[in-house]
Structures are given as structure tokens and as C-alpha cells.
Sequence to fold (291 residues):
Amino acid sequence: YHAKELRLGYQLFDQTLNSKSALWVSLRGQLNNALQQNQFVLFYQPKVSLPQGTIVGVEALVRWEHPEKGLLAPGVFIDIIEQSTVIHEFTRYVLKQAIIQCRLWLNQGVRISVAVNLSPYNLRDDEFIPYLKEQLSCHQVPAELIEIELTESGTMLDLNVAQRVFPELRAVGVKLSIDDFGTGMSSLAYVKKLDVNFIKIDRSFITNITTDYRDVAVIKSMLLLCVNLNKEVIAEGIETSEQAEILHELGCKFAQGYYFGKPMHPLVITPLLTKDLPVSAKVTPIKEGYS
Ligand code: C2E
Ligand code: MG
Ligand code: MG
Ligand code: MG
Fold:
């Protein structure tokens, strides 16, 4: 895997595309081929417990190792995939890779949860849950180690479907998270209708938390709501020790962000996970470099 390792240092190409652009059209035409050729690679970002920074799980974040354009961030191509029927096969591919990675870590004595992002369209795929069950059993991965993230806006887009499918997913034993919480224009009280384990507070509420008392007020009420609804909270996008400290003081138990670690290639994150067995390795904040 030397060629792959060299690619780790590549600058991520991360910019949203105008849907009429030539690049958009060209990438759309290459989707099927990219899937067949395994050009989609999962990077993993640590989820940690506060205040120690112990890794409790990871989130799988897809990148496209494009043969000509280098490493593409999901912002460049996820919309294209979501607007195509390839989304179902794509998500199954991501799920399978994440389950296989979870199994590889289990084999090394590392027991952590692995989260996968779903597109709202995936909830309408009747083959998704059977596929999930098949992959869990095929790779002997406990369902409780797999977490499924759905954005708040995606969930609200089709609340009826979410209310039907979430309990089915919970029955399989996987964990559920509402991603980017707070950005979906839905009432806070909507979460009571959703049978989920985790709420992920969107990064936009964290950015100014050390300077803007209004963001502190919003976070406080989200935390209170989640405690009362018996849901765990993860704060997204922590970039500084000051942000981590405030969140801990406010009672937030879990966090994710560049301060604790960027999304990393499996070859980069695995040594961090296996360093102290059992998993209690302190994450040293990763400043620059691999992403
Ligand atoms: P998300 O699920 O909310 O993932 C978090 C995004 O925030 C990731 O961007 C991550 O790299 C970035 N991030 C994490 N910590 C920090 C931080 O401290 N500061 C800043 N500025 N950013 C941080 P990424 O990897 O570019 O992914 C963007 C979005 O693409 C994801 O947002 C998710 O909605 C979507 N996505 C990624 N992988 C998949 C996938 O396999 N399937 C689907 N359907 N969507 C995916
Ligand atoms: Mg996510
Ligand atoms: Mg998010
Ligand atoms: Mg997002």
C-alpha cells in the first residue's frame, strides 16, 4: 500500500460544485466505474469522551480517490450520488467497508463503535435492513457497535418514513444518531418523536462558544432537553481546548473535532487505537498533516 500512503498527504479537494458545471457532469458519469474500482475510501474520525479524550468510537467519512483529481471530499460528490440511484449501492458499499473495518479492529482487540452516514433516500430502500443484517452476521460484528447517522434535515424531510424505519433499525440492534442537530429548522420537541440514541450538536453552535453567550444558552438548552429525553449528546467540530473545556463544564459527555483528531486513513488511525489496550488511548490532538 505504498501508493496509498503517499496519497495520505494530498490536499483534500473540497469545494461545492455548481450542478451545471463540467466537473459535476463528468463526476456523475464516473460514479459506477468508481464504485466497481473501489475508488471510494473511508477515513475515520475519533469520537471521544470528555474530559479525558478517550476514543469511544469513530465516524466513517468517505473520500473519493479520484485517479486524476486526487482525494475528493464528500462535499464535492455526495450531492451527485444522492441525486442518482447509485446512492443505494454506494451506501451499501460504505456500510460493508465500515463493518469489515470494525471486524479488523475487533481482531486486534479494539472494541469501538463505527458510525456510518446515511442519505435520507436510503430509508426508502427496502433492501437496506436485510443487507445490514447480512453483513453484521457475515463478519460477526455485534450490531451495537454500528451506529447510523442521519441529518436532522434529512430526517424531517420525511418524518413518517423515519418514524417507521428507525424502530426497525433499533430492532436490529444498531445505534442511531441525529446528525447536524440544530440546523434542520425543526422544533426541538421533534426529537421526542424519534427513537434515537445520540444527538450530534452541529458545529455551527460550537464555533463561537467561547465568545458568544447566546451559543452557550442554545447548547445549554439542547443538553437539558437531551438529558430529559434520555439521549446522549455529541458536540461536533471542537477545534480548541477552550471549546472542549466549556462543553465539559456544561455537562456534554462526548465530542468530535479536529482538536481530538481529523478524519484519518485506517493506516493512520489504527496505531492510535491499538496503542494502549484495551482502548483507553489518549488522543493527542492532531494539528496539521494527514487528513
Ligand atoms: P458530517 O456527517 O456532519 O461529518 C462531519 C464533517 O465535519 C466531516 O466533513 C468532518 O471532516 C468535518 N469536521 C469534523 N471535525 C471538524 C472540525 O473540528 N472543524 C471543521 N471545520 N470540520 C470538522 P467531511 O468528511 O467533508 O464530510 C462532510 C459531510 O459529507 C458529512 O457531514 C456527511 O454529511 C457527508 N458524508 C460523509 N461521508 C458520507 C457517506 O459515506 N455517506 C453519506 N451519505 N454522506 C457522507
Ligand atoms: Mg455524520
Ligand atoms: Mg455533522
Ligand atoms: Mg454534515
In short: The chain has a mean pLDDT of 88. Residues 81 and 87 are 5 Å apart (CA to CA). The longest helix spans residues 86-107.
